[in-house]
Amino acid sequence: MPIFKGEIKARIVEIRFALSGKIAGVTKHTGDAVKKWNLVASLDRKTLQMELDKQLSDYEKVRADWEIFGQKNPNPTEIIDKYLKAEKQALLNTSVKDVELAKARLDQADLFSPVDGIILDDSGIVPGLYATPASSSIKIMDLSSYYFEFEVRQKEVSDFIKPKKCKIGIEGVKEKIEADTLPVFSDGKKFTVRTTIPQTENILLGMKGSVSF
Length: 213
Hints:
This protein has 2 helices and 15 strands. The protein has helices at residues 46-72, 79-107; strands spanning 4-9, 12-15, 21-26, 33-34, 39-43, 110-112, 117-121, 130-131, 138-142, 147-152, 165-170, 177-180, 185-186, 191-196, 208-212. The strands form 3 sheets. It has a 7-stranded antiparallel sheet with strand order 12-11-15-1-10-14-13, with no helix packed on it. Strands 2-9-7-4 form a 4-stranded antiparallel sheet, with no helix packed on it. Helix 1 (46-72) packs antiparallel against helix 2 (79-107). The protein starts with a strand and ends with a strand.
C-alpha cells in the first residue's frame, strides 16, 4: 500500500456571548492556553444586576400580596375568592420565573472555555467594545481532538472501510506515531481518511506528514 501525505488537524470550537453588552474584561487572548471552564471574557454586569435586583423586588411585593390574601382568606369557599387565589398564585409563579431568568442572564455575562485548548482567534475583543451574539466569536482549538487527515482515490476507498493500524511520520518529529484509521468518508468532492492521535507531545495544528501501513 502506498504512503499517503496529509496533515494534523483538530476540532475548532467557536464560543460567543449569548447576550449583547459592553465587554468588561478579557482574560484570554489569541495564542493563550485555556483549561476547561477557564474564564475567557466578561460583559459589564451592572445593567444585568439591576435587572435581577428589580425582579427580586417585584417578587417580594408579589409574595407579600400573596401572603396577605392567604391570611385574609385561609379557606376560600366563594367562587370569586378561589379565582382570586389562583390569580395570586399565578402571579407569584411568574415572578419566581422572572427572577430565575434574570439570574440566568447575569450568569451568561461570563464566557467560559468548554474544552482544554488554545485560543486561535479572539476577534480582537477588548474591554469597552460592544458585543452581540452575532459578533465577537472566540475560536478555540480542542487539544483532545487532534487527528491526522489524508485523501485517498476512489479506487482505494474499499481499503479503508474498516480500521487499519498505521504509522504516522510528522515532519520535525523524530518518532513515528502508531495510530488507527477511522472509516473513510466523503464530502461529495473527495474521499478522506482520518486517524486517531494517541499522543499530542510536540504536535501542532497544521503539521505536515505521511502515513504508512
